[in-house]
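Researcher: We're teaching a course module on how sequence relates to structure. For the next exercise, students receive a sequence and then see the predicted structure as tokens, so they can try to spot secondary structure elements on their own. Here is the exercise chain.
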Amino acid sequence: MVLLRGNETPREVICLAYGLEEGLRKFYSMSVELAIDPKIVALLTKLAEIEVKHKQRLFDIYLTIDPTALDMEAFEKNVTSELVEGGFDSDKLLEQSRTTFKTAARVLDFAMTLEAQAMDLYMRYAQRSENPAVKNLLFDMANEEKAHLKSLGDLLDKHIDIT
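Model: And here is the predicted structure for the students to work with:
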């Protein structure tokens, strides 16, 4: 699947990334309905809330590029959010991952997989980009995904007994 051509503007890349974050937020929110255990529901809710923070970070970056942007709601009209981080279709991913929502360890492992795939996606596109500003933005986004991955790993280590 190709989401980027290589000659995107920073504005286009931010819109794409924002859409992927929103797609993942929706995915986690829809996943709450599949979870039975209240701890899993709480974890999925927290993961959805984290994606809201990621979206805010991207919108803040967008404002540095386009300070005339009115508000997040107007910005979101230019964003497509059917895909989640890693480039997956959220509806198909939800159907394929139904068994994931039985334990917190599985949920966190799954979330870590998505963050790793998003990091890889941004790294690959950074290497392909012809625009130096976009290249730097994509490398920064890959580093943020790496930090998200570490945070999820810390959460897994701190709160979950994998054995």
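Model: If you want an answer key for the exercise: The helical segments are 10-31, 38-65, 72-76, 90-96, 104-128, 132-159. The CA atoms of residues 31 and 95 lie 10 Å apart.
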